[in-house]
Amino acid sequence: MSGRGGEGDTSSGRLPSPFVVGVGRSGTTLLRLMLDAHPELTIPPETGFVPQLIETARGGEASVDELLAVITGHWRWKDFGLESEQLRARFEAARSLRPAPVLRRFYELYAEHQGKPRWGDKTPGYAKHMPEITRVLDEARFIHIIRDGRDVALSRVNTLSMKPITLEQAARLWRRWIRQARRQGARIEHYAEVRYEELIAEPESVLRGLCEGLHLDFDPAMLDYHARSAERLSELAHDVPSRNDKPVRPAAERLAKHEATSRPPDAAMVAKWRTRMEPADQELFLAAAGDMLDELGYPRS
Predict the structure, then answer these.
(1) Tens digit of pLDDT for each residue in 54-82?
(2) DSSP 8-state class, residue 195
(3) pTM across the whole model
(4) Which residues of 226-243 are buried (b: 16+ CB within 10 A; e: fewer)?
(5) Which of these, 119, 110, 138, 147, lies nearest to 21 by C-alpha position?
(6) Other CB atoms within 10 A of residue 245 CB
(7) Rounded to an integer, what is the distance from CA 204 to the centroid of its chain?
(8) Which residues of the chain fall below pLDDT 50?
(9) Longest dimension (CA), the chain
(10) Any alpha helices (H) in 218-278, and if so which ranges?
């Protein structure tokens, strides 16, 4: 694990809140469930609405109805198991409807429903929005989980619930995403990188390091995340209606891609490309993203 700015409370005195980001199929859900297994911390399913909510609430002039519409109108709203009127009451009681208090009201409500005092977030795409989120929530601690792009590509092209792409497209997407996230990470104070491979091989060591930066005492329950993974992922057990040009996403399909989180860390999940990627595809990946493998220290063969 590498990073900076992990020590110290925020300038507002708030305890740090982890924001897990990364390329899809890199272990973001695994890390979310490990952190969420801590008795003092909860992390909701992917939120997705934060950048839009920041924009809507920026001037502090948006109405409660306008703010609610951003959150409850998002296709992920049902995942959180909250009632819109509960959130409305929180907004109406707030002294300010600027982005920070509005976002905190949402996360605090979710945490209360989970019976925990602290909250975080896991939305892979926020890797593209780290500076703007940091400007609003100074308690945000971004944790970028990185996985060998060849394993990411294999998983990506074989995941039915995701838009079909070729292996070369997956390689270029991984390279571009990592590059952009690292550039954004360099612009903020609190940014850390975690390697998926290290999390699998030495989960306790990695989690202890993260807990230190988050001002949490490590708890062994974090290693038993898989005992509650089905319960936590049950929030996704509903169909997502069709939207824009995207078809209906069945509940079973949403849950299937996280099936591996029901088991303890498995070394077989590391370097799968060595046995499952054809030599010609390995060369194709190297041509598209070999320079990023080099930058990150992954072996080419």
Answers:
(1) 999 999 999 999 999 999 999 999 999 99
(2) E
(3) 0.94
(4) beebeebbeebeeebeee
(5) 147
(6) 6
(7) 19
(8) 6-8
(9) 60
(10) 229-233, 251-256, 273-276
